[in-house]
Amino acid sequence: MKNGTDSFLSLGHWPSAGSFGFNTDILATNPINLSVVLGVLIFFGKGVLNDLLDNRKQRILSTIRNSEELRRGAIEQLERARTRLWKVEIEADEYRMNGYSEIEREKENLINATCDTLERLENYKNETLHFEQQRAINQVRQRVFQQALQGALGTLNSCLNSELHFRTIRANIGILGAMEEITD
Questions:
Q1: Residue 9: what pLDDT?
Q2: Which of 7, 44, 82, 87 is the most buried (most CB within 10 A)?
Q3: What is the pLDDT, as a whole number, of residue 5?
Q4: Distance (Å, whole) CA 149 – CA 143
C-alpha cells in the first residue's frame, strides 16, 4: 500500500496542472474514492440513517405491541370460547341425559300401550272364540234336536194310529193344563 500511496503523492504521476486525465491505477484510486464517499455518507447521512433506524425501530416496537395486544385479545377470546364450549358441553350432556330418559319413558309407555293393546286383542279373541263355540254348539244342538224330533215324529207317525195319536195329544194337553193350574 505504501507504493500506492507514494505513487499517488508523487508529482510525477500527476498530470500537469492544466490537463485533465484519468488515473488508471485502481489500487491507488479506489481506496481513496471509497474513503471519501464513506466519509461524506457518514457525515451527511448519519442523521438520515439515524432517523431511518429510529423509524424502523418504532415501527418494530409498534408491531410488537400490536402483536402483544392481539395475542392478549386472542387469549381472552380463546378463554371465552373455552368457557362457552364447556357450558355447551354441559348443556349437551343434560340434553342427552334428558333425551335418553325421555326416550326410555316413551319406550316404556309404548311397551305398556302395546301390552294393553295385545291384552285387549287377546280378550277380544277369546270372547270371539267363546261366542263362536257357543254359536256352533247351539247350531249342533238345534240340528240334533231337529233330527231327534224328526226321528221321534217319524217313529210316532209310523207306530201310532190316529186314535192313539189323539189320546196322546189329550194326555199332553191335560198335563199342560195341570201345570198351568199349579203355576197360577
A1: 46
A2: 7
A3: 47
A4: 10
**The three three-digit cell numbers of residue 108, written as one number:** 316404556
Tens-place pLDDT, residues 48-91:
878 888 999 999 999 999 999 999 999 999 999 999 999 999 99
Whose grid coordinates read 484519468? Answer: 22
- Here the cell at position 33 is 474514492
Domain boundaries, the chain: 33-141
